[in-house]
Design brief:
220 residues, alpha+beta, M1 Pyruvate Kinase, Domain 3, 2 domains, six-stranded mixed sheet, three-stranded antiparallel sheet, globular
Length: 220
Amino acid sequence: MKSFRGERVSSLRFGEGGPQDDRRFMLVDESELRRGKRLTAREVPTLLGFAASMDDGAVAVVAPDGTRVRSDAADFETRVRELVGRPASLHEDTRGANHDDSDVLVINMASARALAAEYGEPRTFRRFRPNIALDGPDAAPYEELQWIGKRFRVGEVELEAAAPNLRCSIPTIDPDTLDVDPKFLRFIVEEHEGIFGVYCRVIKGGLVREGDAWRAATAT
């Protein structure tokens, strides 16, 4: 579910449109001034505390307090409005239309550690909501920004780094406490031109497993 709590998985299959079922569902704002627009954590930061799963063909939405509602319930939209704080409907798309600027976001854990050290406070990489987080003894901070236009492999998957990721306000939200730290985004803007991570496109699909080897980028 778009803008809901991220889920760590042991394996993930990638196809032409990115990770299988990633952001397949999202909430659409039905309030008068934003009717039909995506409802994300930029508008409602507490969405990052919600979870979603498939339950016998329906989408089960679980609020931070544990309240659970299924999409096939007659009062689903009423319950969601109570939980989210504004009217919303559920939208499904299997073609990647629920993605923002790219189908795949990759970050480098060496960069995440370096950024937290520069900022002077711990900052979990989960703030950046990547599809893939690369790590290893040879990983160098910010080397991924040199990969633009180049290809690299992770497990069975071949990716091409398409563009640096210009960050929005989402990384200011702590995914565990939901506290907001606006200074963190200002720091990224001032020190890194607002960039962290790289957007990628899938060249060859396949399976990525946690712990899979990855090979640094090569020119196309």
